[in-house]
Amino acid sequence: MEDNNLLIKYTNVNLLQGEVIVLRDVNLEVRRGEFIYLIGKVGCGKSTLLKSFYAEVPIASGEAAQVLEYDLKKLKRKKIPYLRRQLGIIYQDFQLLTDRTVEENLWFVLKATGWKRKEANERIKEVLKQVGMENKGYKMPHQLSGGEQQRIVIARALLNKPQIILADEPTGHLDVETGDEIIRLLREIREEGTTIIMSTHNLQLLEQYPGRILRFVSEHIQEDGESSAPVFQDATAKSPKKRFVIPDAVNEEEGQEGKE
Known about the structure:
Elements lengths: L5 E12 L2 E12 L3 E5 L6 H8 L5 E3 L2 E4 L2 E2 L8 H5 L2 E4 L11 H11 L4 H14 L15 H13 L5 E5 L7 H16 L3 E5 L3 H6 L2 E7 L2 E8 L4 E2 L10 E2 L6 H6 L3
Parallel strand pairs: 3-9, 3-10, 7-8, 8-9
Antiparallel strand pairs: 1-2, 1-4, 1-5, 5-6, 10-11, 12-13
């Protein structure tokens, strides 16, 4: 990828889970500093796409599949850790080590990626301050609220100064107010130049916090453009990057998901 701002490029990519095709003909370009929402029903392929970016789901076929400087079609297993060090990953279920403190959780990551202790300690202080948790480093995960734990997960994702953060339902287990705080934090991180790609069922977030929208429908990804209040596609839009409008009511299944 010659364009320095182009971080991800997929051309006619197909993705499988086991023997089942999940996504077909994915054509996607992601650039530096974007905030991207992935939306769609459960099982539509959002998590599969995110996992493909860090080589947990292999590329079944495609003309091009590049993340940062890595060609995923040719990526050898021994190179996967180097790719993952350049990505920040935020999980819905936190995945913190419960037998050690916040600082020890973060040190575990930095130690595994080759940091020396002195530099690591400074970096841990930096990321904890960035997420507003500078006074929580001594605590165990069970002593933190759900929102605080998610902030620690974001801090962990920031440790190696990634160009891209992948967030899989980061507000899924949080109340509305705490979820809003997490989204505001992610948007602050985006303002510093980090690309954020986030899956969500909470369509209200799209109304409050504008971003680029990718909708997953029938094994395909539809580009729905950038809008301030997107929920459903405007049938009058003629551009390939379609705008959304807020309907009076959403269909029952997706409306229920939006409340999660």
